[in-house]
Amino acid sequence: MKNALTGHKRWERAWRDPEPKSEYDVVIVGGGGHGLATAYYLAKLHGITNVAVLEKGYLGGGNTGRNTTIVRSNYMAPGNTLFYEKSMRLWEGLSQDLNFNVMMSQRGQLNLGHSDAQMTVLKKRGNTMRANGIDADILTREEVRRIAPYFDYSPNSRFPIQGALWQGRGGIARHDAVAWGYARGADRHGVDLVQNCEVTGFVKEGERVVGVDTTRGRIRGRKIATAVAGHTGHLAAKAGLTLPIETHVLQAFVSEAVKPMVDIVVSCGAMHFYLSQSDKGTLVFGGDLDGYNTYAQRGNLPLIDHVMAAGISLMPSLSRLRFHRHWGGVMDMTMDGSPIICKSPIPGLFINGGWCYGGFKATPASGWCFAHTIAQDRPHDLNARFTIERFSTGHLIEEKGAGPFPWAQ
Amino acid sequence: MIRINCPFCGERDHSEFTYSGDATKVRPAHGSTDMEAWLDYVYLRANPKGSHTEFWHHVHGCRQWLVVERDTTTHEVLNVAFAKPLKSGGN
Amino acid sequence: MGSDCVIEARSQLATRIKPGLYGTAEAPQVTLSEVRRRRIVQAAGWSDTFETVARRLAEAAGGTVPHEFGIAAVADTVTTIWVGADRLWFTADDPKLMARFAGTFTDEEVVFLDISESRTILRIRGARSRNVLAKGFAIDLHPDVFPVQAIAHTMVEHTGVLLHRVGPEAFEIYVPRSYAVNIWHWLTVSAKEFGYEVED
Amino acid sequence: MPAHSFRAASGGAIDRDQIICFTFDGRQFKGFAGDTLASALLANGVRLYGRSFKYHRPRGIVAAGPEEPNALVTVRSGARREPNVPATMVEIYEGLVAESQNRWPSLSIDVMGINNLMAPIFIAGFYYKTFMWPASFWEPFYEKLIRQAAGMGVAPDQPDPDRYERANAFCDVLVIGGGVAGLNAARKAGEAGERVLLVEQMPWLGASAVEPLPDVEALANMDNVTVMTRTTAFGQYDGNCFALVERVADHLPVPPEGQPRQRSWVARAKRVVFAVGAHERPLVFCKNDLPGVMLASAARDYANRFAVRPGGRAVIFTNNDSAYEAALDLVKIGVDVAMLVDARIEVPARLAAKAREAGIEIASGSVVTRAKGFKKLRAVNVARLSVDAKSPTAPTRTVACDLLAMSGGWSPVVHLMCHKGGRPHYDSDKLAFLPGDLLGYNQSAVGGCAGDWTDEVEPRELWKIPQPYGGAGKAFIDFQHDVTTKDVELAHREGYVSVEHLKRYTMLGMATDQGKTANIVGLALMAEARGLDIPAVGTTTFRPPYTPTALGAVAAGEVGRNFQPERFSPIQDWHEERGAIMVEAGLWMRPRYYPKDGEDIHAAYRREAGVVRKGVGIVDVTSLGKIDVQGPDATEFLERVYANNFATLKVGRARYGVMLRDDGIVFDDGTTSRISENHYFMTTTTANAGPVMAFMEKLLQVEWPELRVHLTSVTDQWAGIAVAGPKSRELLAGLGTDIDISNEGLPFMGVAEGTLEGAPVRIFRISFSGELAYEIYTTSDYGHALWEMVWEAGQPFNVVPYGTEAMAALRIEKGHVAGPELDGLTTMEDLGLGRMASRKKHYIGSVLMHRPALLEDDRVKLVGLIPVDRSLNLESGALIREMPFHPNDRPVRDNASFEELTETPEAAGLLGHITSVSHSPELGHYIGLAMVVNGPARQGSRMYACHAVKGENIEVEVVSPHFVDPDGKRLRD
Ligand SMILES: Cc1cc2nc3c(=O)[nH]c(=O)nc-3n(C[C@H](O)[C@H](O)[C@H](O)COP(=O)(O)OP(=O)(O)OC[C@H]3O[C@@H](n4cnc5c(N)ncnc54)[C@H](O)[C@@H]3O)c2cc1C
Ligand SMILES: NC(=O)c1ccc[n+]([C@@H]2O[C@H](COP(=O)([O-])OP(=O)(O)OC[C@H]3O[C@@H](n4cnc5c(N)ncnc54)[C@H](O)[C@@H]3O)[C@@H](O)[C@H]2O)c1
Ligand SMILES: Cc1cc2nc3c(=O)[nH]c(=O)nc-3n(C[C@H](O)[C@H](O)[C@H](O)COP(=O)(O)O)c2cc1C
Ligand SMILES: [Zn+2]
Fold it and tell me: Euclidean distance between the first and final Cα of chain D, in Å?
């Protein structure tokens, strides 16, 4: 706190604002959490520091800066379970690793079940977690009520709460701080963070991708790695790849700041609603996708109506509370709801994308695995299944079984 | 609210319709056993930024499947047509 | 179907419709009721021939083919409505409606289906009908846009319904039967501020 | 202080005949009808309204409209409590209860005010740079502390007693804003015969207009014009659709009967006119947050509309012309205007003359450098400003005053215009962001929001007042979030220089007012620090809602039971009368069980299912999806959509069919019957009825238009009753249909049509329970009567009604797959249905089902399970392993073992899971269905059902999934 008392003059600039060089060992496209984490781990763990992160807008201005910040590791599909747990473990030491407080708050996450069918799935999920060394509990309705007395337990409830899956280590983190912390860390290792630099095309020599064209000129790279959540599909198309991805918008909402009222993170699949209260006192919440392809970072009224209705149906006292902003983020929705972290079929091009609406929690592990994949030219065990080929072979990674419909994942 | 001008029903809120993705994908002929063609049809998407040709089903209206051209950066609807060319059925 | 029936037909709203005056206003400004025992016959054909088949169908039924999708053709005993490509509904308060088509058509021309009981028909009339309907229907009900005999296949309370303007201040709503209780509830709540009468 | 001591004896648009009593912080006050809480309290001399967010500084009123950043109060109490409402937007009513917020124990003595002294550590971004060490302290300690300190008001903690509703509007022209410009635009459109809707957020029309406006009356007389006050357009969405919220009853103690509290409108307009005016900006100088410092236009509104003197002695401070009118109006109402400080060297001649005439001293080329006072304003320091505007010049004069009315220029309200993602355009003469080319072809902006004003003398660009040498103290930009000029400097120094980083690092503009008065100042200061011009820095994104909006209003009553529609069968009344406990299934409400004297669900379903096995039971199956398939090509169509053969199905017969998705995974199943040559009756699961219908329609309309087939949902046309159990035939015999139900007349999978006392019936001899069973359908009007008749006919056999729970028990015993097994991940082969799939024909999914992963041997496949110790319960969701799972096998959070965990998850030994369980009425113990790797090959072996979460392992025997009558003898007898 010393700095605070000396007028904050001693905090140096968070990151430099370098002119891009003409060539790097690795060029990362996308200055969101994943791109920045990838740069950080490339430098820190693999000694590759001649790296640029190219960001078309401002660092962390993509989904990293517009998500509802839920962090959990409660996945059950083989391939997902341990990957997200790896991420959780990285989160647990992240503030110290970065020397920047990402405000990771492991206040516990409640996944509500409203029917026998849902409870079966939650139990399967919880048991799978626990069998893999991940904390999980199955709660009865009464236990849920003790944790969250403010939900609707009356006969008026359309989807009565039957129970829940509880992950005590789940929680939220401060989205901006994650981007800024990784950015600072990467910058300290010599990575060039280049903002207002949009990649507009790829430079190819034969089959191989050897650079990118940007709004700030051509930049060559021995390896080009994209981490452009929401834009993976159309960017990859510029390199000649068609992917099993559609871009969709997810909206989020924030209420006025109120004194502490909800001290957990809650998700309700039956009604499509999730909510947490930020350290500032605002409630941050959201729901389902709007459900049509879009690159506009905004959604429409029917979904907004639905989110509000779901929120109040779950927690009747929200009715008179007011929201004061809502926004949207555009995401890569894949055909099985799971991500892609791999060497692409095009030599020199590495892809990290397809995060759907769940990639914030993945930020550390995604960067960690992507850095490994780029540095070693092969995936780590943890991301070995996150390939593009899985769609042809049928080795899909599905939590839900929604079928090949991106808007239904 | 995206307003879709159904050729049968007139202009309606998009919430009367369900979305069903890229309408430019060509379904392999019934009977085709070309695995690659099926994979392409079921999984791969051009996902364009800009004009997108897509299916909407007027599920709460006339139940016709429509092909809508819409800009994915502005949501502006550029064209609406029946998925199936019609010979009769109103005007 | 059902004409010689000795069992009593029962409305989906049998226990919900309770005639009387409701709401606050002294004089109710809308009246709500259910239209019972109307028959609905769907006739569906094939696009290459349906134009002529439709004319013959209408003739057989004693009506005419509406020349627009959004307008019902009303004749003495039958109302004809487009409900989709190559599909018409004939509605009449006649238990023998289906019989009007008997024997004259082949499957190669048209297929029929009696779906009378799949819909509960609600009627609302009175000065404030439009105000009540505007609380659920996202279509323009202004008489210049939605005149008498206009129909709309549209959504109310997340339910696909058919709305038919049967008079300057009178409408009928064809509701899928299993949703009728829900829509009736919505109508009564929405009408309350104007005062309403429920008729049997 | 005497009541109303700040109210002029006459004037204003208030109704002095209607005195209204209300309380603020427990004290009784009086106001008049037409007052806002802000005007009434100002009239009573109240200056202190709340404590600020971070520093808990005392705060007063700044504005007179929704842009008010400071005076947030809590109104009402109990279940109707509403925190954080600007006092400027509350209309007083008899008995209104309002309280200040964010202070403890009271507004004037607030212990958290200590934050103010600790201010250096609460500066922008301080959280991120502190509190990480020691790591173990963050959560239990620091984080809790931060959270306690957060928030403003206290949220309600009870369900809302009020109601909300939705409404739809259509118009040719939507005019947003009922000020001079909006009224005028509406009148013109109205006169041209267009259908006009004008919305105004305040309770009155005319905004700040002093004189009554003729347009108001003209509009009232036009049939084609609707005017709605107390209605805010809060968001613009696609298709020229605007979301409005009408505050129907917020100005009343409770909503009148039948009326909602608020109504949520969607207005769809052919054309829209924005006439939303402009917001005045504060000026930024030391301690500009003291109560008593307010916007000049607000001071003027209080004087004109409410006849309130917002102070006794005022100083006016401006950089533009508009504050002169305010000064004059304040004089008119009896405020002693000590001085008008105009930052410009040249002052507007005409206005200045008028001001001097009114006795106002004008200090040109001067600025207010500091406000003085402790909890309220006592004086200001005034100094001349150097020509380069970089520093004040000595000497400083101190002018005593209790009101400072300031005007830092005007910001057109472009918010709504930007909601679709556009950015406004900066006008460096007007010092304002204007709509520019933001507007669509069917949109226009008029009046203040179009920047439609001209000053005699150009405003002087003055984003912050330079501090005199040695001057210290905070100068606020964003009052609600306590963002000061120092925060902007800090953000700049640390590299958070993009406006978006500035916003997020300092929280500028992120409070409930969304920086309406603050944002432009903040970004101008950043531009200055970076040496860029304002357009190069740009604005942040404008997002809905324009003003905070209650969740309840937008949900519009679709909450609780009304969250989604409920579907009922025609037999519902009977179920209700018999006390059935209902359960939802794909919107349908279905009886789950019919408890008898105090039975719980387990006792009830076991009893019900037991009767079906031994006698006869009836269940309402109306909710099953029913699709009528008709046309010359109906058979060909079914051949294509079903994986099994349908070409050979004869008229009068039914067949179980399985449908796949294009990707080869099972989509749905059901029984389809051939009613006549070209006519089929298809059933689907309750949950998939909609998707199956839509998919098949797509195939016909889009892919196979050459097939002459019509599909019609007849789910609601037919009521269905399953009659199941060894005595079901006897029961039906007593029913009196004209259908031959003998085993020969109606064999297994036979279908017959007939009548029952004149009502049409269809009887299908199909069975989900595994017993001799029938499904009997009639048209919905007779559904209830049929049920009663079946019930009567069943009395001699002690028939029971059964619910979904018993139905599930019966199907599990029989090994029929349902929802838990058809989970969107399984193939026909996985479900043991592989042999059904046709090898001769092509059908939906027949290509992609041959992808390698879908053919692998070690996929999970359907098996039956029984506990080795028959007295134990099985639970669905348990995992299947060859070995029991002990918590110590995989300790939670054991970093040491993580590398080992990075092997494949199969290393955890997971071989599958239990999908469905039931207590078997036939066997008298628990049974389960499970999906197990290579399951069928394991029949006879023992494994463990592991409830890892509970640390519980149950040894199970793997058996066939067909627990009863595996050969189907009972079905056929
Ligand atoms: C509303 C919402 C709520 C969500 N909630 C959660 C949640 O609770 N928990 C959770 O785990 N996940 C959540 N997610 C998902 C999560 O936000 C994302 O998966 C994650 O942030 C992705 O991080 P990223 O770094 O890959 O992408 P981003 O942060 O989007 O970064 C990608 C960057 O690439 C840049 N870029 C794109 N194209 C180019 C180009 N051509 N050239 C240069 N730069 C380019 C973009 O500007 C962007 O900054 C949510 C998402 C949304 C939208
Ligand atoms: N420097 C100056 O002298 C200066 C600056 C600004 C305006 N003006 C003058 O002031 C007058 C302004 O007139 P005007 O009619 O343009 O603005 P106005 O401020 O008089 O009226 C705008 C109205 O719109 C309403 N409104 C705003 N947002 C709304 C929303 N989202 N939903 C519903 N209602 C909303 C406001 O409550 C207000 O009543 C003009 O005559 C203009 O020239 C002068
Ligand atoms: C977790 C979280 C909390 C937020 N809280 C606030 C808030 O309190 N106030 C606010 O104005 N915006 C808040 N925002 C939204 C941002 O202002 C902004 O809308 C979002 O980052 C998207 O950027 P854009 O609106 O510029 O597109 C929050 C965003 C996130 C992700
Ligand atoms: Zn339509």
Answer: 96
B57 contacts on A by Cβ (under 8 Å): none
Beta strands in D741-886 (DSSP E): 751-756, 759-764, 773-779, 800-801, 860-867, 879-881
What confidence tens digit (pLDDT) does each residue in C6-57 have? 788 999 999 999 999 998 767 899 999 999 999 999 999 999 999 999 999 9
Beta bridge partners of D317: D341, D406
Ligand 3 proximity of A175 Cβ (cutoff 6 Å): yes
- Asked if D58 contacts D119 with a C-beta cutoff of 8 angstroms, the reply is no
- Give me the mean pLDDT over the D58-63 stretch: 96
Cross-strand bridge partners of residue A192:
A52
A105 lines ligand 3 (CB under 6 A): no
Does D903 score more than 70 pLDDT? no
Q: What separation, in Å, do the N-terminal and C-terminal C-alpha atoms of chain A show?
A: 45
The radius of gyration of chain D's CA atoms, rounded to the nearest angstrom, is 38
CA distance D929 to D937: 15
Strands A109-113 and A265-268: parallel
- Rounded CA gap, D343 and D330, in Å? 20
Q: Going by C-beta distance under 8 Å and a sequence separation of 6 or more, which residues neighbour residue A289?
A: A248, A249, A250, A303, A333, A357, A407
pLDDT at D117: 61
- Residues D344-373: b if buried by 16+ CB within 10 A, e if exposed: beebbeebbebbeebebebbebbbbbbbbb
Atom of ligand 1 nearest to the CA of A30: 34
b/e D804-831 (16+ beta carbons within 10 angstroms → b): bbbbbbbbbbbbbbbbbbbbebbbbbbb
Taking phi over 0 as left and psi of -120 to 50 as alpha, with beta for the rest, D4 belongs to left
Contacts of A27 (CB under 8 A, 6+ apart): A51, A52, A54, A211, A212, A219, A220, A221, A223, A224, A225
Per-residue pLDDT tens over the stretch D545-603: 999 999 999 999 999 999 999 999 999 999 999 999 999 999 999 999 999 999 999 99
User: D402: which 2 tokens?
Assistant: 């209790």
Q: What is the DSSP letter of D628?
A: E
In 3D space, the residue among D165, D559, C182, D568 whose CA is nearest the CA of residue A158 turns out to be: D559
Percentage of chain D surpassing pLDDT 70? Answer: 96
Ligand 1 binding pocket includes A70 (Cβ within 6 Å) = yes
Confidence (pLDDT) at D120: 56
- Ligand 2 atom closest to Cα of residue D448: 16
pLDDT in tens, D357-397: 999 999 999 999 999 998 899 999 999 999 888 888 888 89
Q: Determine whether the interchain pair D568/C1 forms a contact, defined as Cβ–Cβ distance below 8 Å.
A: no
C5 reaches D (C-beta below 8 A): yes
Residue C172 predicted with pLDDT over 90: yes
Q: How far apart (Å, rounded) are the C-alpha atoms in residues D755 and D751?
A: 13
Phi, psi at A121, each rounded to 5° = -65, -40
Q: A-chain residues within 8 Å CB-CB of B49?
A: 234, 247, 295
E-assigned strand segments in chain C:
20-22, 30-35, 39-45, 73-74, 79-84, 87-92, 110-114, 119-125, 151-156, 159-167, 170-176, 196-198
Mean pLDDT of D130-143: 74
Give pLDDT tens digits for A135-166: 999 999 999 999 999 999 999 999 999 999 99
H, E, C per residue of C111-156: EEEECHHHEEEEEEECCCHHHHHCCCCCCCCCCCCCCCCEEEEEEE
Closest residue by Cα to residue C71 from C88, C49, C94, C93: C88
Tell me the C-alpha to C-alpha distance, in Å, between residue D45 and each of D49, D61, D76, D303, D499: 11, 12, 22, 14, 39
Restricting to A residues 13-42, those with a Cβ less than 8 Å away from any Cβ of D are 13-17
Ligand 1: distance of its center to the CA of A355 in Å?
A: 8
